[in-house]
Amino acid sequence: MKKQNILSLFALSIILSACQKPDEQQPQQQNTSASTAYHSTVETINGVATQAADNKQTTPSTISNQQQFNQADQKISAFMDQIEDSNTSQNLRHQIICQDYPNLYTQQYIPALLKLSPKNTDQKSLLEQMNFILNDYKQRYNIKCSSVK
Questions:
Q1: How far is the C-alpha of 34 from the C-alpha of 23, rounded, in Å?
Q2: Count of beta carbons in the 10 Å neighbourhood of residue 138
Q3: Mean confidence (pLDDT) of the chain
Q4: By residue range, what is the domain housing residue 60?
Q5: Which spans in the chain are helix H?
Q6: pLDDT class for 102, splitting at 50, 70, 90?
Q7: What is the DSSP-derived secondary structure letter of residue 24?
Q8: How many CB atoms lie within 10 A of CB 6?
Q9: Measured CA distances, 82 to 21, 115, 136, 137 (Å)
């Protein structure tokens, strides 16, 4: 429940900041947890996707895009649960935070979401969200990712 509340606040702040004129934008305070931010954004995105589906006929392509998004979303949620599990080893956290999560997010989650909601979502803000979440985890679990692959 706490995660959902934090994510809702994060999504609301994203929506409100998107409505502001550029000269009105204020630096965002990053006081929410990663999982909360993610889940709040997902709830907002699901609402937008539902509205979009209501406004147009459902096609096999739309259903397939929704399935792709749901699968990627479930995997990301599982990664977040695993990262936050006290029984997870530091090596596995490092693997998820530095490789698995960013790869899944950029290669599956973002493309599926952009197909579902291209007018309400952009790649730049999604990448910022990912970086916010991963930076929170890196700080919380003292993880350092090397930039060399």
A1: 27
A2: 18
A3: 75
A4: 2-17+30-141
A5: 2-19, 34-55, 60-84, 90-95, 101-104, 110-116, 123-141
A6: very high
A7: G
A8: 20
A9: 39, 28, 15, 12
Higher-pLDDT residue of 106, 19: 106
What is the tally of structural domains in the chain? 1
**Residue 102 domain flag:** yes
Q: Does residue 25 belong to any structural domain of this protein? A: no
> What residue type is 109 in one-letter code?
Y
CA 17 vs CA 39, 42, 125, 136: distances in Å: 18, 17, 11, 21
Is the CB of residue 109 less than 8 Å from the CB of residue 73?
yes
Burial string for 65-99 (b: 16+ CB within 10 Å, else e) reads: bbebbeebbebbeebbebbbeeeeeeeebbebbbe
23, part of any domain: no
Q: Residue 127: is it exposed, middle or buried by C-beta count within 10 angstroms (0-12/13-18/19+)?
A: middle
